[in-house]
Amino acid sequence: MNFGPVSSRTTIQDGVYQQLRQALMNGQFDPAQSLTIAGLAETFGTSNMPVREALRRLAAENALEIAANGSARVPIVTVARLDDLCRARIAVEALATELGAPLLTEADLEILEKIVAEQRAIGRQENIYTLIGKNQQFHFTIYRASGSDVLNQLIETLWLRFGPYMRMLSTHVAPLIRAGESEPSGRHATIVEALRQKDFARARDEVIADIRATQDVLRALCPK
């Protein structure tokens, strides 16, 4: 984990929480992996208290499960949970796309095109977690254009809970990208094309197709 030290008294608790939250969202922890307060405190260079508080906040968001001894565990992956998350993601992300797509500026579209190019370059360099971060940046550029704080908060929470599945996906996809057998940007170029043509219904449908394609891959990878 590439965590940085957190030392400011006023930001220490939030700093630990934000770094852990992003790492979970990016799939940097294995499903069912245990996280101990002492181990994380040593990694962050803090006392136990801010780590304990961060774990408690993440458990409240259903991103972690807390054991009786205070340690935390990344949730296991199941097909049923995957399907439930994807169903919810499709509902809120399709709506955020419907609302956000017509409000994207030329500067936004240029950002999206740049991200696609960066994803393709990163894919050749084999940096899978940077690639995942670019995927998040791409989608939230569209969703935040909706201006809906409620939708964006819901989507962030769903992506956070999707973290263990992103870990599985990255492990599966990384060698395929290296071999040139998988497109690093997914369906993003097609989404940008629809946005450029102002075909907002198609852009929404492509976002849905993007989620469903990921779901199909993950269903085959989930333990039976």
Q: What's this, in brief?
A:
The protein has 224 residues and is mainly α. Helices cover 69% and strands 3% of the residues.
Model description:
This protein is an all-alpha fold. The chain is 69% helix and 3% strand. The protein is built from ten helices and three strands; from the N terminus they run αβααββααααααα. It has helices spanning 12-25, 37-44, 48-60, 79-100, 106-125, 128-144, 149-161, 163-178, 188-196, 200-221; strands spanning 34-35, 65-66, 72-73. β2 and β3 form a beta hairpin. α9 (188-196) runs antiparallel to α10. The longest helix is centred in the middle third of the chain and has 22 residues, at 79-100. The chain is globular.
Biggest pleated-sheet summary: 3 strands, antiparallel
Mean pLDDT across every amino acid position = 92
In the predicted model, the low-confidence regions spanning at least 5 consecutive residues are none
- Strand fraction equals under 5%
Backbone structural class? mainly alpha
Shape: globular
Multimeric state of these chains? single chain
Order of helices and strands: HEHHEEHHHHHHH
Radius of gyration using CA atoms only: 18 Å
